[in-house]
TrEMBL record:
<protein>
    <submittedName>
        <fullName>DUF3341 domain-containing protein</fullName>
    </submittedName>
</protein>
<feature type="transmembrane region" description="Helical">
    <location>
        <begin position="234"/>
        <end position="254"/>
    </location>
</feature>
<feature type="compositionally biased region" description="Basic and acidic residues">
    <location>
        <begin position="1"/>
        <end position="12"/>
    </location>
</feature>
<feature type="transmembrane region" description="Helical">
    <location>
        <begin position="315"/>
        <end position="337"/>
    </location>
</feature>
<feature type="transmembrane region" description="Helical">
    <location>
        <begin position="384"/>
        <end position="407"/>
    </location>
</feature>
<dbReference type="InterPro" id="IPR021776">
    <property type="entry name" value="ActD"/>
</dbReference>
<feature type="transmembrane region" description="Helical">
    <location>
        <begin position="274"/>
        <end position="294"/>
    </location>
</feature>
<keyword id="KW-0812">Transmembrane</keyword>
<feature type="transmembrane region" description="Helical">
    <location>
        <begin position="50"/>
        <end position="74"/>
    </location>
</feature>
<feature type="transmembrane region" description="Helical">
    <location>
        <begin position="427"/>
        <end position="448"/>
    </location>
</feature>
<dbReference type="Pfam" id="PF03916">
    <property type="entry name" value="NrfD"/>
</dbReference>
<feature type="transmembrane region" description="Helical">
    <location>
        <begin position="357"/>
        <end position="377"/>
    </location>
</feature>
<feature type="transmembrane region" description="Helical">
    <location>
        <begin position="616"/>
        <end position="642"/>
    </location>
</feature>
<keyword id="KW-1133">Transmembrane helix</keyword>
<feature type="transmembrane region" description="Helical">
    <location>
        <begin position="128"/>
        <end position="154"/>
    </location>
</feature>
<dbReference type="InterPro" id="IPR005614">
    <property type="entry name" value="NrfD-like"/>
</dbReference>
<feature type="transmembrane region" description="Helical">
    <location>
        <begin position="574"/>
        <end position="596"/>
    </location>
</feature>
Amino acid sequence: MTTATHETHDTPHGPTFPDPLPRIPLVWGPADYDSVSRQVSEITEKPQPYWWWPTLLLTSALTCGGVLAATYLISTGVGVWGSNVPVAWAFDITNFVFWIGIGHAGTLISAILFLFRQKWRTSINRFSEAMTIFAVMCAFIYPGIHVGRFWYVWFSIPLPNANHIWQNFRSPLLWDFFAISTYFTISLIFWYIGLIPDLGTLRDRAKSRARQMVFGVLALGWRGSTRHWRHYEVAYLMLAGLSTPLVLSVHSVVSFDFATSLIPGWHTTIFPPYFVAGAIFGGFAMVLQVMIPARAVYKLENMVTVKHIDVMCKFIMATGTIVGYAYCMELFIAWFSGSPYEWQTFKNRAFDGDYTWAYWVMMTCNLFIPQVFWVRWCRQTPWFVLLVVTFVNVGMWYERFVIIVQSLHHDFLPGSWGQFHPTWVDWLQMIGDFGLFFTLVLLFLRALPMVAMAEVKGVLPMANPHGTVPAPGAYLKGTDGTYPTADHAMAAAFGPPSQPVTEVRPHPEPVPAFVPTPGGTGAPWGAVAEFANGAQLLAAAKAALAAGYTHLDAWTPFYVHGMKEAIGRTRSRLPVFTLAGALTGLTAAVVLQFYLMAYYYPTVVGGKEYRSWEAFVPVFFEMTILFAGFFTLFSLIGLCGLPKFFHPLDSHPTFGRSTQGGFFLTVEAKDAKFAPDQTRAFLESLGGKHVAVVEA
């Protein structure tokens, strides 16, 4: 980065400090908020590029191959796989753990980085969240089909079955079921809540009646009310807080499938943190694997900038180093333990075994190759990053293969040793899963916004209502007038940074003083005025509150900080409902497990007492998170008064811009101070445009 050199000088008033380094923008070039909406929405509104249909045809064909393989396996039996003694787990669990790991990056980017207020996540979190959903769907295939008798898969659900035999709640495999299903559900809720404002944007931009209806239903009638935003922001924060421990718990629980066994190579306490770091490592790599081509073909270089790629590469380098450390510690622990079985397993793995080649493919792809990201050019050159993350994804698949197959193929007795030979069903099922994943990604790009528009608008320089925006180019140039080298090309391509809108977009026709609504009552609902930006709207709301108006609301395309207080609203009560959901889930988990395992179907596992609670903790945790997530979703909908598919303000000719780039202030007729003519005049005196009284 090229910046001016500053020196500190002593003055009679104390030392002067150098100016801060130039601030690199997260998003380049949009002239206003509407351009963000237009650029992202047009991906779903216009016909797809010429390559989209052939690619979809190819991935759909691969998906059909996976369906064929699964159908053949279910109708014939699991013997069609190459899995056999001693390698009883092979491609099925390898692919299962691989896809679970891919799903970790979405929750990390969305939840953990949100809690740490890392604003660079805003351009990529939607894409990552979608990949989480799709990866977990691919992983869910294997627990269903590898039981053999697919029609009995419902036995894994805690319901009474025909023999009145309940699940073993002390089994890591059942912990797996609860962990993954909870992770999928909470990720889906988190994804959907984040989509709601953008679905409202697609609804208001829709030209056809069908799109208006579909996105209107999905958006639940969202219109950007500050009364709703205050609940929405808290709900998003609650779900981020709930999702964060899931990142650590899900792959930790998956690792318990191995770590709680006595198999050499599996029985180690390092597996939970090792699996979590590896999942984040592989998840970030897959996000870049798909995002870099999408960024190029959809011309999103100004939203998903080199800075985003650079930071994600740093995550990959850091987690790859942690994974490499775990590889070395596995070897050290095997040697230091003095167990001949452990040492033989790792000696066979790294030096003289049948699958040593797989081990060194894993080491090369996961430890050695990512070290090139120490070099800035390697992190900021998209085609090179794409090449490196391809190696990382290959290496992460081989990591799971090495852990599972290479640890099993040498049993305790040399007479039991054997190798795994995948069949055509193994290969076709694995390829079909990749086809399913990329098919879902393509459909997502076609149907839904791949960038979180509302969140991107909120991080634009002009979105801050409390401060001033620098002049064009000031915050990305150093004091010597030069651009940072990594972003010089971006500055040349997309121009100066965003500037605040100072005028309201004119309407082709004059807005009438009284706007009727279809089937209206004749009485006024309230008065509405449009303002140029968040700062003007915030000032107008404060003035209206000071003038004695109490039934105020502001309507904005993103959450404007300070607006809640400006219209006289207090903090949301939603956390109370989240807490109630968490306590409900914990209570249900306690009753379920103790009733079944200690009373109804008492089972001794590992010589422990019926009432030993330590093994119940994973299900305690997962059900607490699950119920809290559901309560958060339903309380958000209830507190916002949604769904509300028609609102009197919809009749106002410019109000449809409230989800795109418009800022509106309303005074409701039930306000004691409301008088149609006087209130209109007051809003006009505050600088409002397109002022009108809307019929109820």
